[in-house]
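User: quick one - fold this with magnesium ion bound?
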Amino acid sequence: MFNLILFGPPGSGKGTQSDRLGEKYGLKHLSTGNLLRQEINDKTELGLSAKSYIDSGKLVPDQVVIGMVDSFFEQHKQASGFLFDGFPRTAAQAEALDNLLASKQTSIATVIALDVSEEEVVKRLLNRGKLSGRSDDADETVIRKRFAVYLAETSPVAAHYKNAGKFELIPGEGTVDQIFESLCLIIDAKI
Ligand code: AP5
Ligand code: MG
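Assistant: Sure. Structure tokens for the protein plus magnesium ion:
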């Protein structure tokens, strides 16, 4: 199994690159953001409880997200590898992921972080907000809140992987093709 984490702030291109990488390398794309939005669309209890966190740019509680990842794993037992996008976002989530992968006799091969500035993020997400209907893209204050939450709660998770020698930072500004090429170079060297 080859398991990869795409790391980086909101709007850094994790989803865009995951779609392409998942297809090229046959990895199952696990985006906790997409799973949560699906729950909201389906009007499930989980979705209803997650919505207020998402709309205000805060993180959904760990136990909700970890439970969702567990069941995604159960549903895709045959996958040859996973591409994690937007997960883990806290130390507790990183620990839960380590344990989950260890129980399947596997682990994270590498973490690649996309480096994008706050101003570029705001520009990209305001632009997407005009079309996407994503409630958390509509308001600049919420976008900046998401960025601040990333700095305070998620970026420290990088140390967990740096200590294990499994962390690489690449420029996330440039064309989608350029960034895809940089990602493929790193993955090809590890896979
Ligand atoms: P989530 O859905 O994960 O969103 P996010 O991390 O805030 O970021 P985005 O999905 O907006 O950005 P992205 O990095 O995927 O970039 P994308 O490719 O879309 O999370 C949403 C919310 O759910 C969180 O705030 C939280 O409440 C909750 N949540 C999710 N996971 C959680 C977890 N694990 N724990 C707790 N809570 C959780 O690109 C963005 C835009 O930029 C697009 O329009 C794209 O076309 C454009 N773009 C992409 N690449 C480029 C480029 N190279 N140049 C120019 N534009 C580009
Ligand atoms: Mg995304």
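One thing worth noting: Residues 2-190 form a domain with the Rossmann fold fold (CATH 3.40.50.300).
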